[in-house]
Amino acid sequence: MLLLISACAVGPDYQRPPVDLPNAYRGAAAVGMPAPSVGDLAWWELFQDPALQDLIRGALAANHDLQIAVTRILQAQAQVTVARSQLWPTVNAEVAAPYGRLTGAQGNRPPNVPREIFEPQGGVTVSWELDLWGRLRRATESARAELLATEEVRRGVVTTLIAEVAQAYFDLRALDAILAISQQTLATRRQALDLMQARYERGLSPLMDVRQAEALLQEAARTVPDVERRIEQTENAINLLLAQHPGPVPRGRALVEQITIPAAPAGLPSDLLTRRPDLRQAEALMISANAQIGAAKAQLFPTVMITGFAGAGGAVVSGQTFGPFGIFQAVPSITLPIFNAGRLVAQVDLAEARTREAVIRYQQAIQGAVREVADSLVEVRKREEIRQEQAKLVAALQSASDLASTRYTGGVTNYLEVLDTETRLFGSRLTLVQAQLDNAVAVIQLYRSLGGGWTAQEMASAQ
Prior knowledge:
Blueprint: H1 2-6, H2 43-46, H3 50-62, H4 64-85, E1 90-96, E2 99-101, E3 116-118, E4 121-130, H5 135-201, H6 207-241, H7 272-275, H8 277-298, E5 303-317, E6 320-335, H9 343-409, H10 415-449, H11 454-462
Antiparallel strand pairs: 1-4, 2-3, 3-5, 4-5, 5-6
Helix pairs in contact: 3-5, 4-5, 5-6, 5-8, 5-10, 6-10, 8-9, 9-10
């Protein structure tokens, strides 16, 4: 009967709550069968720049946030061991040598009372709580779920870290492109100023044209030091992610040669439940809270403890030796809660309320994840449209600038037209770089919102 009772545990067994998921993400076509997702790609398949891959590997090996997450896993593993150990008997070795002496005159001592007693003994003590109602097993179940949640935190850190390194690297390559445009524009405008100065000295151009050329030159010149400052600060930020001191960062491919837009990136919304670390963590916390209900309910039932001692000892009574002799003691005890001012029932209510909260948080996290993917999909789509339109604008302004320069050289128009087209062209080229950066960052955010990154890393670590 005891074996049958101990085979079950009070409290509800975990079942995943019903989840309302759409058939497809907003902005993506409905899918009738499982489809590949960009979230299933390994990070080195999405980010193919060798320099960026080296940076990501360095961050995964040395990043402080990731190391902290690993230490928390070790802490959770120790908690599981502590909880599981309660299921087994506690055995301790014990040695004692009590000595007593009764002083005073012989006539004042009670009859038949020895003058001194020395009782050395040693043995093994055993203490064991029979987990009849599953309290200890539910506590172990809860600790294991907490361990799983901690592991998902680490995987979430991996996903976030990969995205942060990639985004910082793309920021750096965008700044490199802006610096190259600024320096190229600066050199071109310096040549234009020299030409304008020569024309003025020969009386072919007014002084106003010289001053306007100087203004164009200074506009490009003031951009260069600001971009150089931002480049150095971005390099420092990347080195911090790699747990390194500030220093230069190696470059690879240009920004326009980085990731491209996946053809069918999303996949099924139901895949998020198994791919996204934050959803897996929320479910693990829900499992842990559910197990605590059983642990709390088990406290309403009797507690059965078995304690005992087995060993050997002897005795010296008033100079006479007795023993050695064996010692065995067994003390089973049953504790039944009778009155505790509602504390135990309140603990059950508390555990049930926490479980309901965990369920609501899990459902909320799922809805938030679906929204993030939908936002990322429209971000990728519209950022690409903006980049294409901006590229057309740059091409048109480049043609207008060339035409304005030809008209000015031919004496058809004044330098104000050249000034206007040059200013607009310079700003549009910088805006195009920003559009290219926004496009790449949108793909990174889509990859992150789909839970990409950690799965491939786990497989690589296992190999």
